[in-house]
Amino acid sequence: MTSGVPAGEDDEVVVVLDPEVLADGLADARWLLHDALLRGARRIVVDLARVDSLASPALATFLWAHRICRARGGGVVLRGADGRTSDMLRRTGLWRVLQVQGGRGRRGGVRGRGAPAS
């Protein structure tokens, strides 16, 4: 499921991931991101609030989209990441690359670009 302002008006697209989108792996999520990029999005907000956890290949997919958005002067924002995903971002160093907003779960999640929560 994708929602957001059409690129060109605000250049931001929100991609909502949920268990249904991820049921068959990452293919559907990749298509949603690809569609947003084809629409000209400079900034993609990936809403993870409905996702329990992500595997590392998902982070590689977000990084792929981020590189394209970055070339356009934007980036990828991860919103609502759980504690496990936040830990994976910290371990891989991707919390320094991807912007992360409003983590869920235990204290110590990653919040904001380059700023781990206390």
Topology readout:
Elements: E1 2-4, E2 12-16, H1 27-38, E3 43-47, H2 56-71, E4 75-79, H3 83-92, E5 99-101
Parallel strand pairs: 2-3, 3-4, 4-5
Antiparallel strand pairs: 1-2
Helix pairs in contact: 1-2
Can you put this structure into words, describing what you see?
This is Anti-anti-sigma factor. It holds the Pfam family STAS_2. Residues 1-94 form the STAS domain. InterPro entries: MlaB-like_STAS, STAS_dom, STAS_dom_sf. This protein is α/β, with parallel strands linked by helices and 118 residues long. The chain has a single domain (2-101), classed as Transcription Regulator spoIIAA. Helices cover 32% and strands 18% of the residues. The chain is built from three helices and five strands. It has helices at residues 27-38, 56-71, 83-92; strands at residues 2-4, 12-16, 43-47, 75-79, 99-101. The protein has a five-stranded mixed beta sheet with strand order 1-2-3-4-5. Strand 4 (75-79), helix 3 and strand 5 (99-101) form a beta-alpha-beta unit. Helix 1 (27-38) packs parallel to helix 2. Mean pLDDT is 82; it is low at 1-9 and 105-118.
